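User: Before I run my own analysis I want an independent prediction to cross-check against. Here's the chain; please return only the structure tokens and, at the end, one sentence I can use as a sanity check.
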Amino acid sequence: MTTDVRGVWAPLAWVGDSWQKRVLLRVDAQGRWSSVEANVDEAPGGATVVSAPVLPGIVNAHSHAFQRAFAGRAERRASAHDDFWSWREQMYAVASQISPADLRDVASSLYTEMLLGGYTHVCEFHYLHLAPDGRRYDDPVAMARALGDAASATGIGLTVLPVVYERAGFDDAPLRPEQRRFAASVDDVVEFRDAIRALRLPNVDAGVAIHSLRAARANSIAALQERCAGDPAPIHIHVAEQTREVDECLARTGRRPIDWLVENVAVDARWHLVHATHATPGEIAAVAARGAGVVLCPTTEANLGDGVTDLAGWLDAGTPLSIGSDSQVTRDWREELRLLEYGQRLVHRRRNVAAAGSDSTAARLFVQAARAGGAAAGQPRWGLVAGARADLVAADPEDAALREIPTANLLDAMTFVSPGRPFRDVMVAGRWVVRSGRILGGDSA
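Assistant: Structure tokens:
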């Protein structure tokens, strides 16, 4: 069975911002959509018929693959007070043990789960660079190579974001022993980025990241931006995830984290602020004015007790909003969007907070996640549109969540009626990586 296709015909596909009927999607030799046409009554010769609703794949815009080995192991209180900071100590213990071979195995399983959950590309916020003793591997990008190998084996697309990580906090304290694997300067990160690109793995690219304002010095952030001048690849940063981070930044700099970032750094559309949970209306307006994106990770933010962001504020400001699985407690975009909206309902005690007027709540969130996710991954075009990479996912028509649902409500049912079955068919760059629920992977293509 060949995994390459020349075209796909579907009775129903999400094209643009709505469902279209009888859609023909043609694939070019580079694995991109060469044309997308609705109202094509029959599948032409050579096209594969997908008898299920078809959607663009979603980018998982924030992932720490190694944390999949830790998911489910921190759900007991180790002390009277349990929060992000106590969870972090347990996570460090896991991070200290993972080898490149371990990471490849964990990431391979994880990326298969992501494909079944509707993700066709993942951004790895990658700071597990060094050996457990803090020394470089003989291959400086051994850990990143493990991620790339896992992506190639499963068929998922990958953007590796090597992370600047140089201090333990705003007080400029040196990295703690349990953080020594994370140490990376600006020079290191640029070297890692270029080495990852030089691997030339299929559908694998690299950008850069800054762990956080507490973990990177101001002059290093400026230096990284200078080194990335003219490079269109994305730049990601954790920011304003916890209230303690906000308080410490205020005490040290006199500014809140997002406020400091937009005041001191030439933030632009390449930048993607991860979490941005604790943002004021003024900070939201400033980020929107710069054209930067925000990556929300609802299931992780809930799992860690971080807080709930001002979703309506970000949406009203027009900020591009992508989603990420972060700590891997969930690997399905439907669950991320569901919890994103439900968190708002609980806080505001009203329904359909993310909806624009009487339009579909799920559609607004899905369109945001699809468009902004492509940008977060460094993809100039994304979706079922000519020129975009030929990625798609097809729902399982036997899913009870979709039974007897009108077309207009399909996306709402996919998102809010749970549990949903795994996606039945998944394509990345014009190749099937999941077909009829069977995992084909990338190396077999």
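Sanity check: The radius of gyration is 21 Å.
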